[in-house]
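Chain A, query sequence.
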Amino acid sequence: MIRVVLPAHLRTLARVAGEVAIAVDPPTTHRAVLDALEANYPMLRGTIRDHITQRRRPFVRFFACGRDLSHESPDTALPEAVSSGDEPLLIVGAMAGG
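Chain A, predicted structure.
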C-alpha cells in the first residue's frame, strides 16, 4: 500500500481525515499513484493534475523522503521507501503571493 498525505482542502474534498492508503501495481510511479488516487477518490480528478494534459497543476508539489519530486517525469519510479509504504508521498499546495 502506498501512503499519500493530501493538503487540507483536498482531504476535505475527499472526505478523509488523515493520510490515505492506496494499492498501486508496480512500477510505482507518480502517474500510477495519481491514477489509483483518482480511481479511489473520483472527486479529486482535476485537482492535482489537469484533466486533459495530465500535467501537475502549477501550485501542487510532490515530496517524499526529504526530496522535491515535483519536476520528475510522471513515469519515474518513486523512492523504494514510498513503494514499500515506509514513507508517505506528500502532495502539497504551494504558497504564492507577496
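The helical segments are 8-14, 30-40, 80-83. The chain has three helices and five strands.
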